[in-house]
Amino acid sequence: MRLLAAMSGGVDSAVAAALAVDAGHDVTGVHLALSPDRQTLRSGARGCCSVEDAHDARRVADELGIPFYVWDLADRFREDVVDDFVAEYAAGRTPNPCLRCNEKIKFSAVLDRALGLGFDAVVTGHHARLEGGELRRSVDAGKDQSYVLGVLTGEQLAGAMFPLGSMTKDRVREIAAERGFAVAAKPDSHDICFIPDGDTRGFLNRRLGSLPGPVVDAATGEQVGEHGGTYGFTVGQRRGLGIAVGDQRPRYVLAIEPVSRTVTVGTADLAAVPGVRTGPPSWTGPVPPLPFTAEVQVRAHAAPVACRVSAGDDGGLLIEFAEEQRGVAPGQSAVLYEPDAVRGDRVLGQSAVRTACATEEPLSR
Questions:
Q1: Which residues pair with 213 in a beta bridge?
Q2: How confident is the model at residue 37 (pLDDT cuts 50, 70, 90)?
Q3: Partners of 350 in the beta sheet?
C-alpha cells in the first residue's frame, strides 16, 4: 500500500512510520505545520508542532529512507480548531480540541489531500486499534486515545492505520531506542498544543477580554464571588473558583450562563446528573438501532459508565447513566462503546453534550 505517515516529531509517530516501512508499504512522511509562529509552540513537554518537532520528524524520515514533506495547515487549524475552541468557551461550553483536530485536520484535511494524491491511507501514532474496520481501545489503557478518535466515521477509518494500538507505550519507546531514534526518550506533549504554557484561562482572556460577572451559590441564590469571564470555568470544576462561602463544604461549578455572565456553584450532591441530551451523533460504523445499552465516556480520561441510549430531541440522543455522573459539561463529547459484557472496547460513535437531564426526570431502565 502507498501510505502517508503523519509525523509530529514525537516517538509515537516515529515508531508508527517505522512499523509501516517494516511491513513493506511505500511510505512518505509529512509533518503538519499548524501554527504561524512555530518557534514558540514547544516548552519542555508542552505543546507540539514547533520547528524543533519538524526537525525531529525529518531526522526520523531520513533514517527510515522515506520522502518527507511539511504541509502548512496553519490557517485551517486556526479556523477549525483554535477559533472553534474560543467560540465554544465563549458560549459556555467545554470543547475537546484534540477531538476536533482529529475530525477536521488529520482525518479530513490531511486524509482528503492524501487520497487525492493517490495514497491509500494515513498512518498515525495514535494509541487505538483498528480490527476489521472497527475502532477499538488500545491494549495500553493508560495511553488509550480511542476517545478522541470517536468522532471519525467509517469512511475515515477506512483510510486510517494505527500500528501502535496493540502495544504499550513502554514497548514503543523500546522500539525507538532499538532503532537509535533520538526521539526515543522525548517527553510526550501535554495539555493543549496551542496553549504551551497550560494557562487556558489566560489564553482565552487575551482573545475575549475581561467579561466580569457574579458567582452564585445554587442553594441560597447569594453571590459568593466575582469572575473575569465565564470562559474561565467548566462544569464540574472545583479548584480556582475564587469564592467565599459560609460553610467548609467544597463547591463545584454547576452551570455557566454566558449571556448574564453568571457562574452557578453548588455542593457535591447537586453536581451529579443522571443523564444528558446530546446533538446529532456520528457513528464509526453501521447505525445501531435505538434504543440500546452501551458504555459511555464523557471526558478523555473519565472512566466509562454503563448507560441506555435512546432517541432525543432534534436528531440527538438521550443518554441515561446507570450511575449519576459529575463534571459532565455541555460541549464535551459523549463517546459510546460496546457494553463491557460484550467486549467493552469497540467504539460505536459519539455525540456532543447539549444539556444534562433534569434531576427530577425519571430514568427508564
A1: 227
A2: low
A3: 282, 335
Residues involved in catalysis? 101, 193
DSSP bridge partners of 346? 136
Task: Look at residues 270, 292, 310 and tell me which one is the last residue of a structural domain.
Answer: 270
Distance of CA 208 to the CA centre of its chain: 23
Instruction: Compute the average pLDDT of residues 102-130.
Output: 96
Joined grid coordinates for residue 152: 471519525
> Is the pLDDT reported for residue 289 higher than 60?
yes
Determine if residue 12 is labeled as part of a ligand binding site.
Answer: yes
* pLDDT higher than 50, residue 364: no
Q: Find out whether 125 is annotated in a ligand binding site.
A: yes
Q: Tell me: is residue 7 an annotated ligand-binding position.
A: yes
Q: Any known ligand binding at 11?
A: yes
- Type and span of the H or E element at 256: strand 252-257
Task: Note the pLDDT of residue 189.
Answer: 77
232 among annotated binding-site residues = no
- Average pLDDT estimate for 142-159: 96
Q: Is there a single domain that holds both residue 19 and residue 115?
A: yes
User: What does each C-alpha distance from 170 to 45, 144, 176, 186 come to in angstroms?
Assistant: 17, 13, 10, 13
For the cut 50, the answer to whether the pLDDT of residue 45 exceeds it is no
d(CA 252, CA 15): 42
Does 9 show up as a binding residue in the annotation? yes
| Residue 292 DSSP SS3 | strand
Last residue of a domain, one of 237, 255, 270: 270
Is 310 annotated in a binding site? The answer is no
Q: pTM for the whole thing?
A: 0.91
DSSP 104: I
Strand partners, 135: 130
pLDDT category at 171 given cuts 50, 70, 90 is: very high
Least confident of 220-224, 240-244, 337-341, 349-353: 337-341
Question: Domain residues for 230?
Answer: 210-270
pLDDT at 242 over 70: yes
Q: For the chain, what is the domain count?
A: 3
H or E element, residue 86: helix 83-90
What does R_g of the chain's alpha carbons equal in angstroms?
22
Instruction: Establish if 25 belongs to a structural domain.
Output: yes
Separation of alpha carbons 231 and 161, rounded Å: 36
DSSP category for residue 142: G
